[in-house]
Amino acid sequence: MDKQYKTISINQQNSVVTIELNRPDLHNAMNDTMIAELTEAINETDKEQSVRIVVLRGKGKSFCAGADLNYMKGIAGFGFEENVKDGKKLAALFRAIYNCPLPTIALVHGAAFGGANGLLAACDIVIAEENTTFAFSEVKIGIAPATISPFVIKRIGEFGAKELMMTGKRFKGPEAEKWHLVNRSVPEDQLEETLQQYIKQLLTSAPEAVKVTKNMISEVIASDDFDETISSMAHLIATLRASDEGQEGMSAFLEKRKAKWVK
After folding, report:
1. Is residue 155 within 8 Å of 181, Cβ to Cβ?
2. Could you tell me which residues come within 8 angstroms of residue 84 by beta carbon, excluding any fewer than 6 positions away?
3. 55 within 8 A of 195, measured Cβ to Cβ
4. Minimal CA–CA distance to 54: which of 103, 122, 116, 123?
5. Average pLDDT of span 69-89
6. Using 50, 70 and 90 to split pLDDT, how confident is the model at 77?
7. Which residues sit opposite 65 in a β-bridge?
8. Residue 196 has what pLDDT?
9. Region label for 157, one of left (φ > 0), alpha (ψ between -120 and 50) or beta (otherwise)
10. How large a percentage of the chain has pLDDT more than 70?
11. How wide is the angle at C-alpha 168 spanned by C-alphas 164 and 171, nearest 5°?
């Protein structure tokens, strides 16, 4: 994780990697460079054995104000095939975050407009400062939040998506929590404390078990064969009980001591 990027910065403290959107003068608006750099950085996180958690946040006054204006001017002149290609690049970023084997936490403040909601919706846990302004503003400029929709609708469901996406209205952290777009909406002075609470909880969980659990949830959600899923989960628990972590965790529980992965 030593590479230097133009639009993001990366910092690792112990087992937590923080990826910060780093265009604060533009409220971290996304352009093609940021999309490419974020995708690469997310795909690299699991290659570091010491990394257990990924935090995504923005420098300056906002998490992310959506698409950069110059970027939008450029794509406005694209033909159909160029637009498809561009949309797939953005979708690949959201998918990289969603499929990241490690637990991902988004820390959101200031503004989260348009595509920014794809970034946060693809994360496992989202913490928002209560005065953050959210909006699915695409309809206001004659388009739809198409690329982010698979990830956002997974989070908020059909009818929440209809209200927020069709009106394009602006709303704050507490309403975002009501729709389950974010897990927690908290005052500014509780933002870092809440983040550390989640990190602490995750770090007391077995690292491989967390990865397996994240993948398990995706498999169960995606399955359309209930009986096969039940059978598959029976095999999974048998495998995990026999694993090194499973044996260590059960031994620690029975011996009333901390497991080896708990710092």
Report:
1. yes
2. none
3. yes
4. 103
5. 79
6. confident
7. none
8. 98
9. left
10. 99
11. 65
